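User: Last request for today: this protein with zinc ion, please.
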Amino acid sequence: MTVIIGLEIHCQLTTRTKLFCGCSTDYRNDPPNTHTCPTCLGLPGSLPVLNRKAVEYALRVGKALSCAIPDEAEFARKNYFYPDLPKGFQITMYDRPLAVGGYLDIEADDGTEKRVRITRVHMEEDPGRLVHVGSGDRPRYSLVDYNRSGIPLIEIVTDPDLRSPKEARRFINTLRTTLEYLGVFDGEQEGGLRVDANISMEGGNRVEIKNISSYKGVEKALTFEITRQRNVLRRGLAVERETRHFLEARGVTTSARSKEEEHDYRYFPEPDLCPLRVRAWCDEIVLPELPAARRARFGETYRVSPIHARTLCGDLRLADFFEDVACCGDPVLAATWVADTLLGELYYREMDVTGVPAGHFVELLRLLRGKEITEKAGVEVLRVMLDQVKHGEAPETPAAIVDRLNLGKTAGDAFGPVISEVVQACPDAVRDFRNGKPEALNYLVGQAMKRTRGKADPKELARMLRDAIGDAGGTG
Ligand SMILES: [Zn+2]
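Assistant: Here's the final one, the structure of the complex with zinc ion:
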C-alpha cells in the first residue's frame, strides 16, 4: 500500500527583530512578556511596520528552492480567537504568497536522488505561547507569554511527494541544511521549527498531524500513523478525515477537535500593509553557495570522496570546519578524520563541531601525516582534546598531549628489546613461522603491540620481527 505524505514546515527566520515591530527576537533566558510593545501585544490603534530583512530572507528561500516569484505578494488576515492571539487575527499570506512551484532534491530511500515539489512559500507572524500549569490533561490555569508574538516565520508547503517517514525526515534535514547555508535559519534554536504532516494510504482519507516540534518527532509521528491507519483498514473500516495531535512523550497521535474549514478564518487582505513588489527585489538577490554546489567543489578541489562530501556538506558547520583544516597538506586525510573519526567522537559526546579548535586539529593531522604518531594514538589525542573542550577547559595542543601521555611513535631501535623478548617468550610461534606458517607472524606482532602499548606501527614491528627471526634462524 503506497503511503502519501506532504509537509507544511514552519521555520523561524533569524532576524534580530520581530516581523512587524522593533522588539528583539532574542528573548531566551528573559522573563515572559519582556519583549513586547503595543504592536506585538495587538493593542488597538497600533500599526505593523514590515521588517525588510525578513522579506529578503524569505525571498532567498524561494529563490534557493527554484520557485517562481510573482510580481506581487500580499499579506492577509486570518481571523480566529485564541488567548495567544490578542488582536484576534494572525497576519499571514493567503492567495498571494511570496513564492510558488519550486522543488528540493533529496536522497530517496533507495539512495537515488529524488525531486520533492514545493507548492508554496509564504511569510507569517507567530502567535504568543501558552503555558499550562497543572497536571497534563487537566491544567489548573494557563499563562500566556507574548515574547514569541510577532516572531517572523516562513511556511514551506510541499506537494504530497514523500513516500515514507524516513524520506520525510530526510527532506526536513535537507531543507534545514539549505536554510542554514542561506543564513536565514538556526536549526539548533529551540522552537525554531514546527511541522504539520499530511498522510494517507493510497485511495484513503487524508489525516493531518499538527504541531510536531522536533526532527525525530516527524518520523515517529508518521510511523505511528501508518500503523494506526493500516489497522483501521485491516478491520474493514475507513480512515476518518481528521486532524490529530502528536504526543511526543508517548509517541502516539490522538484525535483533535474537528478542523476549521478555510472559510471559518474569513481571510481578507491586510489593510495596514501594502502589497509587496517581490519579483524585481528577488532578481537582485545573490545566493550563497548551496550544499549541492559545495559537494561538487569538495570533490573537484580537494578530491574528497562523494560519501565524505555528502557527510561534510550535510552540515554547514562541519563543512566550514573541514575547509578550515584542509590546509593541513592532505585534504583527503582531513576529510576522513573529520567525517569519520571526529564526527563519531562528537556524536558519542553529544557535542557539535563549533567548540573544536581548528588549529589544534590541523596540528593533529600534521602529526598523523608525518607519521609521528600512529592512528590509534591520534584517536587517543582527539579524545583527550574533546573531553577537555566538553568540560569547558582550554584544550592542550596535540603535541603537548602526545608528550604528556608518551604517545609518540618511538624510533624503531627502541623496540629492539621488545622484539627479543617476544621471540624468546613465544618459541612455538617462532618455530611455526620458520616452518612456513606466515600467520604465526600476526600472533607475534600482536604480542609485541601489547608490550609497546600500541605506540609502535604494526607494519614496522612485523618487519623487525621478520628480521629477528631470520637472524635467529641463521644462527640456530
Ligand atoms: Zn513588539
